[in-house]
Amino acid sequence: MKSGKKLSLSLNPSLKRLPHDMTAQALVSVALRSGDLYHATAVYEVADSVARVALDTILFEGRRDALTLARWEHTPAVVLQALVRLSDASVRQRVQRNLRTSGQTLAELYRTENSDALMTLIAQHRNTPAIVLESMAHESDSDEVLKAVAGNPSASATVLRILRARFPERFDAAIATHAAASPDLLEAVYETGNDYVRAAVVAHPACRRHLLTQAALSGNPLVLRQLAGNPRITAKLLARLARSRTLAVRRAVAGNAVLTPELVIALAGDESVGVRREIALRGDLPLSVLEKFARDDDHWVRQRAARNPATPVALLRELAGEENAEVRRAVARNPACPAELLEQLAHDDNGWVRAAVAYQPKAGAKLMKILATDHAVDVLSGVAANPRAPQALLRQLAQSGEADVRRGVILNPRASDTVLKSLLKDPYYLHRVLLVGNRTLKDEDKWPLLNDPDASVRFTAMRWFAGKVKAG
Amino acid sequence: MKTILVIAEHRRNELRPVTLELISAAQELRQADDKVVVAVIGSKAEAYTSALSVTGVDEIVTVKTASEEFDPDLFEAAVSALVENRKPSVVLMAHSVDTLGYAATLAKKGNFGFATDVFKVEYDGAELVATRAGYNQKVNVEIDFPGRECVLLAIRGSVYKQAEGATSPTVSALDLGSATSRGKNLQFVEAGGADDVDITGVDFIVSIGRGIAEENNVETFRELADTVGATLCCSRPIADAGWLPKSRQVGQSGKVVGACKLYVAMGISGSIQHMAGMKHVPTIVAVNTDPNASIFTIAKYGIVADIFEIEEEMRAQLG
Predict the structure, then answer these.
(1) Which of residues 235-274 of A touch B (CB under 8 A)?
(2) pTM of the complete model
(3) Rounded to whole angstroms, how far apart are CA atoms B223 and B220?
(4) Chain B positions in Cβ-Cβ contact with residue A202 (cut-off 8 Å)
(5) Structural domains of chain B ordered from first start
(6) Residue ranges, chain B, pLDDT below 50
(7) CB-based contact (8 Å) between A277 and chain B?
(8) Would you say B216 and B173 are in contact if contact means Cβ atoms under 8 Å apart?
């Protein structure tokens, strides 16, 4: 089947050819000539101050455009910074919410805002500088603002310490889970905290060792479960927790990265499938356990054994003949799956199993050719995305009527320039966006996308060229 | 007395569930002595009469065509003949690819009122008012049809309950005469997904995104979804990596989960493309480590946490 109606581009005469000298000025004049909001947005970062004034006339002429840019997820930080200079409360509010707003802009906004609602937006923004959060922690009395400060990943240990000094225990739950919490603060929080707070503290990578020992005496299953998952726990404590009567605790032990080989073997024989499933996920299973798991009653356990690269070929062969399709699929996804089994599974009745072969980087050109005649979209998408697929097949798949298959070709790191060029007028805008970022395609072929009917394509294309100018 | 005409939809010898929803919509709309007529079009049209004999149906009209598969030209001709013959004031059809293949042309040719993706229909006095979403689901738009004798409405699926209860409607046939099609049906090709789940019809979804980090973790969430009775779905990067079938992908490149009532988004940041497929869901629960993730702007409940911790907690709670 041929792909749908291809996009028709009527080129703006000024965009016909890639300029010989790709400079910021050249790109700015393209943006000014086109008058396009998205060209202007994309090129703003590389424009000098004089050029920015000229671009401002495009960017900020209409309030509607300013509101759109203030909320748009791709608007660059420099444009957002320029937007806050407009005295428009709605625009500023959107900038405060925008994930791309820089720390500098947020700091500026902090100096001028005074409503708690807007302050909360700044307090929870991940780019807000620690120094601003520190000032908020010192000065604010708003519970909402302070809660946002305590939960902000950019908050430093100092910020957390200020909060605890000003409001003992009020923000302990947030402090206990915060990555920046220092060992002394965690200890203080542990001493006064409830079981939920203590559970969070013992799971924290900075928790002091003596607290781990102390937590082992807790009767609370949540505390013990979090303790059992901490990779800094001693082997002795882990062995004790492995004998816990609480399933969730044993399961957490089973998932602990520092489990000793003896405990792995012991827990592999656990009566609970939950524990065995967790153990089956490990990459350090000895042969005896893999053999046992390959014949486990539970299909999740067998599935995980089938996916384990250490599982011997003889066992994989056995698992490839399984009735459960997910187990057969797991064999096909195993990085160590031998060619003979891949060939067998490429003819499986189940499309999802064949798709696993199609995505398998070890599958050779012969299998790719067989699978390229399949009718299932997942199988064809797998072939299209597989770096081992021959270019002739990719050329054929680039013409597929299924957008998913064509996207597979676009995402294929080995797709040739010729194949990708045939997709430049793909009807789905997202595909054209993806092609802009492709390093195989030549710039001269991407240049006409500056004239694309879709705004996000035009923006991405101009951003690509601006990025090259910026990188020198 | 007015007639409400319902156009039955069927595929591969099976009545599509939306047909029973349309009958339910007709039931809610009917006034006093109105009549509900269900028309079924196809080469084996009479085979569906028993499935269509549900409470509220007064008459079933079969319209025989040469092919059992949907054909836009033949359906247009058949519905046009039905309107001519039965003079309905309202025609209810499914908001589906089939309907979109002929209804707009039919409405234009017949000068009928027309609205698609309707999720509410009622009379305001004597005026028929249809409600559909506008501005990308942000507002509800009420549409009336002044001066139109007949109105075609394409009704959104999974909004009305399916009609139940047996009844014995009269069954009649309408001859389509010499209607022809410009197309020729060569072969029916099933949409080529590798698994058989239709995520557009499920009501509880656990969905995973980039936050799951690696393929091995997909199984963990599949197991969780199985345990809680949900269907596992995903955002585009997961399907593009081949970690879940394309049929499980939600969003602009995937599917709109029209019938979903509870959507648990695990490690999904919430791109515009993904949200296009699920933002209408009444209860969205989002789990993400980034408090600024866009998904939180549409979530009813937001949890700023590691998805694996939440998954572990859910499993611990479930025992």
Answers:
(1) 247-248, 251-252, 274
(2) 0.78
(3) 5
(4) none
(5) 3-174 (3.40.50.620), 199-318 (3.40.50.1220)
(6) none
(7) yes
(8) no
